[in-house]
What does this fold into?
Amino acid sequence: MCSGTRWLRTVLVAGSCAALIVAMGQPALAGTSAGQGHAPAWTATPPFRVRGSATSTYQSGYAPAQIKGAYGLGQLSQTGLGETIAIVDAYGSPSIQKDTAVFDSQFGLGAPNLTIAYPSGAPKKTDAGWALETSLDVEWAHALAPGANIMLVVAKSASTNDLLAAEDYATSHGAQVVSNSWGGSEFSSEASYDAHFRHAGVVYLASAGDSGGAIEWPAASPYVMGVGGTSLTVTGANGYGGESAWSSSGGGLSQYEGAPAYQSSWSSVVGSQRGIPDVAWDADPSTGVAVYDSTRYQGQKGWYEVGGTSVGSPSWAALVALVDQGRATPLSTATSTGNILQDIYSLAGSTGSQGYATDYHDITSGSNGNPALPGYDLVTGIGSPQGQNLIPALTSDNN
It folds into this structure.
């Protein structure tokens, strides 16, 4: 850590020090031209849930080795080296460097190459809930892609305008992957804001939400990979013990976005509307992950066991960084070639196909009001990754 680093002080990257960048001024928002309406009035919420109370030492919550083992990431040599994962959060955390250092020390991880930017100016307050979300996002993106650069882009508030300004900053400052553990209710003009997530060479991800069958944007955008939630069992030496759909995972059919072409094989499920989510990851707080945070969420500080679909967005972002490390051109959620959304559905093929069985865990039990089914469903999407097979498949698929 850099001694003497303050919340608004600018420091240079050196060793384990993080660069804090105060970028003043509000970028123009795509999708706000005449006739396209106004941004939604809601303020975003971070979809995480905490199990139990914080502890001063690590006691519970899956460790990185357990998650990497269960999802097959531990069998690969990729680290995300040379890739940049952007994390968009409101308010950020004044202790993120310190908290990440404690997390890394506990699990034997090296220090991340972490930069922090404030596109609309620094926030005027600390929000303990968003600070815990920030710790979750940074610590787990780094844990699963330890060689990747982490760009934390802090919106000065949880308003849609500020979050989309942060989104635009991440896009224009070199991110190959952008993780969004935030969302809110769908709104009638949302399609006019999808342009924020439609850029060649960038994969955008968003948590599906924790409201059990409700639909949230931006996960509903056809240019965003929506991540639903499961209850994961890890067995033995970090083995996969099975999953079921988490009852509080967001998912369903969008009210305002039509079915994209990549979901055409699952028209029996989605009909003419965009189905959410696309993929799944551990989210049940009863099978949550370990997070260290010292900003006193609910008056506590230390080690938490955290769940919610917030876990899935930075984790899948890390997986994408592992894939991109081995590709000549990065994946995207916007282009016709190298489109990860097209690829993940194509690799799955149909229910029971060989690709489905080897690349994904098809989750067929549990419900969020929509039942988990063989094949694609509206709570776990295509399913969770068998990373040891899925990552090489996505790396080599340059169509």
Residues 128-144 form the longest helix (17 residues).
